[in-house]
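Re: the multi-chain job from yesterday

Posting the exact lines I submitted so nobody has to dig through the queue logs.
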Amino acid sequence: GAGVSQSPSNKVTEKGKDVELRCDPISGHTALYWYRQSLGQGLEFLIYFQGNSAPDKSGLPSDRFSAERTGGSVSTLTIQRTQQEDSAVYLCASGHGGGGGTDTQYFGPGTRLTVL
Amino acid sequence: GQNIDQPTEMTATEGAIVQINCTYQTSGFNGLFWYQQHAGEAPTFLSYNVLDGLEEKGRFSSFLSRSKGYSYLLLKELQMKDSASYLCAVIGTGFQKLVFGTGTRLLVSP
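And the result, structure tokens for all chains:
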């Protein structure tokens, strides 16, 4: 595809349930990022992948949050035992990565998560 | 700590010029990005500045002063479709993590 895709576009879940959010980066991009956008707040960094490794996971808010990336492509963000404060838009971005230089990040449309 | 400040909301008239300011305080600096985000859509890349000065790209220009921790995005010949949020983001220490401001919502009226 031409851009970053994410699924589902919307997810409504009940408090305490687990959810999985998926990101398909731009083909050939080795770097992948997850951010969270809460109402009235700026985008908040969650985790960064270079290939299948996550050298920076400092933004994950709690141990209920985890992410993985397989085959250097698709990534899933898992939230266990969801809480109402987890309600937000979860955005994925990808970039060429590496090289020690600054990487332009290209964003997907996001998954809007609502925890009831 | 890291802090990115931008105005919450601005209004302007079609055909006019508008300047959206961004000030930042970050641990280290490896570049500043501007993104445009229409409601319910993905942020789209507008510009990247790492050196002081003005970068011009069509109707949009971005300026950076590293000594002042300051940037602005200049939009000329405003069109209705420019109504969107404009996000300022900085890469500080560590090349990968973007630190975002809360965004400036621009409303362009006829």
